[in-house]
Specification:
- The protein is mainly α.
- The protein has 18 helices and no strands.
- Helix 1 crosses helix 6 and helix 8 packs antiparallel against helix 9.
- The protein is globular.
Length: 387
């Protein structure tokens, strides 16, 4: 302050009096704030599917077991840890709707931060910020995060599994994260397998990869065995009831339409991913195998009816890292970046604005749906016999 009298209190100068550049950490804080702020702006728009878990959780909290109707053991949910968590919340007097919104905000923030950490291990600090920005400005993901379901929390667990696997060569810690993800969504082992394939593509040595993978698989394998044993003993089925109710062969055309809808609202992201396959280093490019496996799964099952890209969200951080790697490649080439980067920024802003409008419309529909069903439920409770 004495050396530079012109500097005002709070100015951002370094020791030599030069204006210092903003830090990537500060940019991350801004991104997290924006993402959570968007989640708050959507308001309470809990999807009706969330109340399936809440009903199971309520019976669990009251000592009636994990059932929808007391005395009828049917596993009508696919998010065990999420359902049990809300049972615990209700045991201490918590209200599930607002609790799910708060957990959604935390999960959104966590996904942005985990993406940044993951990208930071592979890319430059500012490229990692770009990867985090792809996630933080994804209003479809943010809306999904505040609808009372487990999708974004599941994406955090999966990303932790992929990141630690990429860092440690697919060790037991990675399998532990995938085990936690398996308790949250039953298809998580598929992503563990995809990560192992990607590590093989990155490092080669197939026999060594199989050996290391099997050696470190025990946390996930133990979880699957215990979960299956419990499911068989409690519900009498190998898989949740929703598998038998909702599957019946491939739905390729619907799955392709679902993926295309995601591409049309994420132009820069998908173009960056496609370009990264040709120009970035193999240690990053191999991540595309994970995304490819998930996309193949989406095509096979047909996606779902929601305009939130729910099935893509678990690999959104992987896609973001690949796209950011391509933009990092472009940034290192001034002659190309002068023309391409401005176009990318404009297209990104344009498509994300359209994405936000779509998400806002869906949020309003969910909010109105929640209010309408609450009115119906209150009327039934007040005007019909208990049974």
């Amino acid at each position: 302050q004495e050396q530079h009298p012109h500097q005002q209190v709070g100015g951002d100068f370094d020791a030599a009096g030069r204006v210092s550049k903003p830090s990537p950490q500060l940019a991350l804080v801004v991104l997290v704030t924006i993402a959570v702020g968007l989640g708050m702006a959507f308001g309470v728009c809990t999807q009706d599917d969330a109340f399936i878990s809440f009903r199971y959780a309520e019976n669990f909290a009251q000592g009636n077991g994990l059932v929808y109707n007391v005395g009828e053991r049917v596993e009508g949910f696919t998010n065990l840890s999420w359902t049990v968590l809300f049972g615990l919340i209700m045991m201490v007097g918590g209200e599930p709707v607002m609790a799910s919104v708060l957990l959604g905000w935390l999960s959104i923030a966590a996904l942005v931060v985990v993406t940044w950490r993951f990208a930071g291990a592979l890319l430059s600090p500012w490229a990692a910020v770009v990867a985090a920005a792809f996630v933080a400005f994804d209003t479809q993901m943010i809306l999904e995060g505040v609808e009372g379901l487990e999708t974004v929390t599941y994406a955090v667990l999966v990303t932790m599994g992929i990141w630690t696997g990429w860092r440690d060569g697919g060790g037991a810690k990675s399998a532990g994260w995938f085990a936690a993800a398996t308790l949250t969504r039953p298809e998580a082992p598929l992503l563990w397998g995809a990560t192992q394939l990607a590590l093989w593509a990155r490092d080669g040595e197939f026999s060594e990869r199989v050996k290391n993978g099997l050696k470190s698989l025990w946390p996930l394998a133990l979880t699957v065995v215990l979960l299956t044993a419990w499911r068989l003993s409690y519900y009498g089925e190998w898989l949740p009831n929703t598998f038998y109710a909702k599957t019946g062969g491939a739905a390729v055309s619907r799955g392709l339409s679902y993926l295309m809808a995601h591409v049309l609202t994420h132009h820069v992201l998908w173009l960056g991913v496609a370009a990264a396959l040709f120009v970035v280093a193999r240690r990053v490019r191999a991540l595309a195998i994970i995304a490819a496996v998930v996309c193949a799964y989406i095509v096979w099952v047909g996606g779902d009816f929601k305009p939130t890209g729910r099935f893509v969200i678990p690999v959104l951080p992987v896609l973001a890292v690949l796209a950011a790697a391509f933009l990092e490649f472009i940034w290192a080439r001034p002659a190309i970046r002068r023309g391409l980067i401005p176009v990318a920024v404009v297209v990104f802003a344009w498509t994300r604005w359209g994405q936000y409008q779509l998400a806002e419309t869906w949020a309003q529909e969910r909010h109105a749906n929640l209010q309408a069903r609450q009115l119906v439920g209150d009327w039934l409770a007040q005007n019909t016999p208990q049974d």
